[in-house]
Amino acid sequence: PVTSDRFHNCVTSHLIFCVLCVCNFNDQEKMGPKDMYLILYNAFCCAGWAIVLMMAVTTVISGEGSLWESLASVYSTEGLATFLTYSQSAALLEILHAAVGLVRSPVVVTALQVGSRIAALWAVNESEDAQNQWGAGVMIISWALVEVFRYMFYAFAIVTGDSTKKTPYFLFWARYSLFAVLYPTGITGELTVFFKAAADESVGGLLGGAVAFVYGWLLPAIYFVGSPGMIMNMVGNRKSAFKKRFARPPPPPRGISFPIDNTEKGTRGSTPVNKEILASAVGAVNPEKAEAIRKAKGYRFTYTKHLIGLVEEQCKSPENALKIAQAGLDKAYEIFEFVAPDGSAVSLKEAMAAKNTEKFETGLVKGEGTAKAGGLEIPYKGEILKGDALKAQVKKWVDYGTIEPTAGEAIIGCVDNPKWCELSDRYFVLLGAGSAMGPLHVLLALGANVIAIDLDRPFIWKRLIGLAKKSTGTMTFPLKKPQAGLSDEDLYDNAGCNLFTHTPMIRDWLMDLYKGKSFTVGSYAYLNGALHVQVSLAMDAITKDLSEKRKGTSLAYLCTPTDLHLVPEEVYKASNENYDLFNSKPLCTIMRLLSNGKLLKKNMRKPVAGEGGDFYLVNGVSVAQGPNYILAKRLQHWRAIIARSKGCIVSTNIAPATSTASVVQNRTFAWAYEGMPYFTPYEIFAPETSNAVMTAILFSDINDAKSVGNPKNKLSNPNQLFSYGSFHGGNWRCAYMVDSIGETSVLLYFSRIAGPYVAVVGVAGAAVAAKVLGYV
C-alpha cells in the first residue's frame, strides 16, 4: 500500500522537478503564465500516473498467485482507485486546453480520446465484475505507462522549446514507441472492462438496459472502427518525429531566400513574409484590409478569409485587379533576399538587375526515335483515345460536369486542327522539366524542341536525356562545361542548374538562346512548404524578363483546383443544384449533423458585384495546404494577369486532381481520392491523362486566336482568365467545398472495401459478445 509519507515524497519530487523546469526556462527566455500552468499541469499528471503505476506494478510483482490473478487484483490495491480516478479525470482539462487554444490539438479528437477513457473509468469504478478480472489490471498498467512518459515528454517539450530535438532521447523514444505495445494492450483491457460491465446487472441494467447496449455493443463497435486509425496515426507521427529528430541541419541559405525574421536566432520564418506580401497587395486598394492581415493571429488557419478579401477587391474593377497583382509582386521582389555563396545578400530585385559574369554553356540532344502518325492522343483508363473516340469522351466529361465546355472545345480544337500538334518548329521552355504534371512526354512525342531546366543532379539528367534520345524531338539544356568531348556520364554530371541559386544566370542564358525563335515558357516546378514559394518566385523572375524583353514569348501555367477562382455563372448554378440534391441524401445529412456543419460546406459563395457585373467565386482552398502553397500559386496568378495586360499570350488553366506519386504516397489523400467520385461530378485522373489533356488545352491557347489567353480578347475582369478552359475534375460543380469532403470520402472508401470483412467480423463479434454477456 502507498502510505501518506510515500505519496508526500513522490509529490515533493515532482514539485522540485517543476521548479527546476521553471528556472531552466527562465534562463532561456521569459516564461508566460500559459507555459507555467502547462508545465505544472503536466508535472502533476505525471506524478499521479507514476503513483498509479508504482502501486499496480508492486501488486503484480508481490502477487502470490498466477500472473492473471495478480492482474485481476490490481484495481483492489489500497488507494489505487482514488489516484486512478483523479489522474484520469484530470485529462478532461485537455479538452478545455484544446478548445481555448492553450495547445494545438483538435478539440473533437481530444474529446473522443478522453471520453473513451472516462467511459472505461466509470465502468471499472462501478462494476465489481469489471474490477476483478485480468483485463482491468492490463488496462490500468497500460494507461499508466503511456501517461507517465507522455506527460513528462510534454513538460520537457515546453521547457526546452523543442519537442523534437531537445527533449531527452529516452523520453522522445518512449513517447513515440511504447504505443506499439501499450495501445493494443490498453484497448484489449478496456474491451474486457466494457463486456464485464455490460454483463453486470448492477451496471448493465441501468437505464432500462441502455448501459448494457452502450458497453456491450456500441463502444466495442466504435473501437473496432476507430482503433486501427488511431494506431496508424501514431505510426505516422512516429515516422515524422524521428525524421525531424535525425534530420541533417539545413544548409546555409543560398540564392532566393526568406529574409531573417529573428536576428538573435537567425531564423527565416515564412509567415511574416506571407502576411506582408498579401497585405501589401491588398493595401494598394484597401489599407484597412491590409492592416487586418498584418494584425491577424493564427494566420496558418485563418489565411483563407484574407485571400477571399483580396480576390473580392480584385473583382471591383480591372484596375484593382492589376494594382493588387503588381503590388504583391513588387513586395515579394523587395522582401526576398538573394544570398551569394559568400553569405552576402541583396534583395531579389537588385540581384536580377545586376550584371552577371558567369555564363552557362549549351547542351543539345536530338531524338533518334521514329516519327508516329500525327494528331492528338489521350491515354485514358488503359486506352489511347483519338479522333472521334476522343471527341465522344470529351462530350461525356462536359455533360457530366467534370470539365468546363471551354476546356472541351479546346481539346476538340486540337483534334480538328492537327497542325497544332506539329511541333518541329516550336520551342517550349520547361521550368521544372521533370515535373510529374509537366508536358515533357507529350512534347517530345510530338517532336517539339524542349528547353529543359531542372536540378543539376546526374540521375535526373540521365532520365531526361534518355527520354529525349528515344523521342522525335530535341532537348536543349544548360551545361557547366562545353558539350564537345563529354562522355554520357560527364554530360549527366554537368547538365542542369538550380532555379534558386542560378536565377539570374538562367534568365541570361534563355535571353540569348535561339534568338529570333518564339518561346512558350512553362512554370512547372513544385516543392513542398516554404520552398514552393521560393521556386515560384524564381520562375517568376525568369518569366518576367522573358515575357517583357523577348519578343514572341508566351507563358504557360498549371493552376490547381484547390484555390480561389472566378467561375462562369453556369457553374454557380450547377453547383447549387448539386447542393440541393446532395443535401437530401441521408449520408450527407448525418455527416453535417455529426460535424456541427464543419463537414460538407456549400461550395459556392455569394456573387461579388464589380465593374462588368456580378462575379462568381468558388473557394477550393484546402486549409491544410497552408499559406505557403496559396502564396506560391498567387504569385503565378498575379504574373499571368499582368503579362496578359502587357500583350503576352498566357495559357493558365485549372488541372484536375491527379493521382501523382507525391500525392498518393500520403495514405489519407489516397483514401480520399478513392471516395471523392461519390460527390458528382468528381473524377480523379491518372498523371498521363492529366498531362495529355492539359497540354492539348495549352496548344489551343497558343494557336487559337479566340482563346481567352490571347490578350486581344476582352475580359470584364483580368481574373476571368482563370474562368475558362478549366479541366477541374468536378471540383467547381461539386455541391461541397473540397476542404469539407475529405473525411466523408475516406469513410466512403473504407465502407466500400471493408464491407464484406465488416460483415464477417461483425457476426463473429456478435457471437463472442453474446457468449460473454451470457445470452448463449
Description:
The structure is a single chain. This protein is α/β, with parallel strands linked by helices. It is built from 31 helices and 15 strands. The chain has a seven-stranded mixed beta sheet, with helices on both faces. It has a three-stranded antiparallel beta sheet with strand order 1-2-3. The chain has a three-stranded antiparallel beta sheet with strand order 12-14-13. Helix 21 (458-470) links the parallel strand 8 and strand 9. Helix 6 packs across helix 10 (179-199), helix 19 (405-416) crosses helix 30 and helix 29 packs across helix 31 (742-773). It starts with a helix and ends with a helix. The mean pLDDT is 90.
Which descriptors apply to this entry?
776 residues; alpha/beta; seven-stranded mixed sheet; three-stranded antiparallel sheet; 31 helices; globular
Summary of the model, kept short:
This protein is α/β, with parallel strands linked by helices and 776 residues long. Helices cover 58% and strands 9% of the residues.
